[in-house]
């Protein structure tokens, strides 16, 4: 019964969707309209100066954009030493769950997903925002039905990075972190390109490109790799452009890594789908 459910502001919390060290995400309903939303609760007492800066960036960016491939921010309010972000609820869950349920996807599906994530990243690029935590868990699907719309979410580690500037904070999720971050080096927006490559690789293979028990082991595996560890049986089925894009996104040297502009112009993303509307 609704009376037994906790309420925050104008919302009734229905279930917990996830969370981290300083935040929690709830599925919630507006008590008057019944609108279903995702409510991100951020504990202000647990925010470091760095995380407070990231939160400011997240709020500023999300409140200024409206794009189908970026999670929508509807409202912000404060209560109980927390700030609450009222966000669009995505019924399809996240891309990590999608990969767990479906396994590796067909190349045409991976291409459609890359185009959508790329469209979202274009908005970040226009605002000089780097995400720094792109991973399947932070890519949400609008629906569980056929042909979902993908939305980039969780900008809790994002920051403004103007052209020619560099960042140095070590952050992100190790399986999707660029090697320059793992090596505690200065970095630019190409760290998001590495993460995008790791997502593409995982879509095609069903597992991340580089794994390990620790960040040190992951970095060692990256450096020891002579070629990407594709699942051998699928390689003959992949378009050469697909393998090329994946390899260029996952270039260890950021100078040689493909830029966002080059990603958008890559021929793999321009392959005609032949009018197929059945989502492969």
Descriptive notes:
Residues 11-269 form the Protein kinase domain. One of its GO terms (biological process) is autophagosome assembly. GO terms for molecular function: ATP binding; protein serine/threonine kinase activity. With 280 residues, the protein is an alpha+beta fold. The chain has two domains: 2-88, Phosphorylase Kinase, domain 1 (2-Layer Sandwich); 95-270, Transferase(Phosphotransferase), domain 1 (Orthogonal Bundle). It is built from eight helices and ten strands. It has helices spanning 49-64, 95-102, 107-126, 179-182, 190-205, 215-224, 240-249, 260-265; strands at 7-8, 11-19, 23-30, 36-43, 73-79, 82-88, 129-130, 139-141, 150-152, 159-160. It has a six-stranded antiparallel sheet, with helices on one face. Helix 5 (190-205) crosses helix 7. The N and C termini lie far apart (42 Å).
Helix content: 25-40%
With strands numbered from the N-terminus, the spatial order across the biggest sheet is 1-2-3-4-6-5
Q: What is the CATH top level name of the largest domain?
A: Mainly Alpha
Distance between the termini: 42 Å
How many individual β-strands?
10
CATH fold-level assignment of the largest domain:
Transferase(Phosphotransferase), domain 1
Mean pLDDT: 93
| Proper CATH architecture of the largest domain | Orthogonal Bundle
Regions with pLDDT < 50 over 5+ consecutive residues? 275-280
Q: What share of the residues does DSSP label as strand, in percent? A: 15-25%
Instruction: Give a short account of the largest sheet.
Output: 6 strands, antiparallel
InterPro entries: Atg1-like, Kinase-like_dom_sf, Prot_kinase_dom, Protein_kinase_ATP_BS, Ser/Thr_kinase_AS
Function: CIPK serine-threonine protein kinases interact with CBL proteins. Binding of a CBL protein to the regulatory NAF domain of CIPK protein lead to the activation of the kinase in a calcium-dependent manner.
Keywords: ATP-binding, Kinase, Nucleotide-binding, Serine/threonine-protein kinase, Transferase
Binding site for ATP: 40
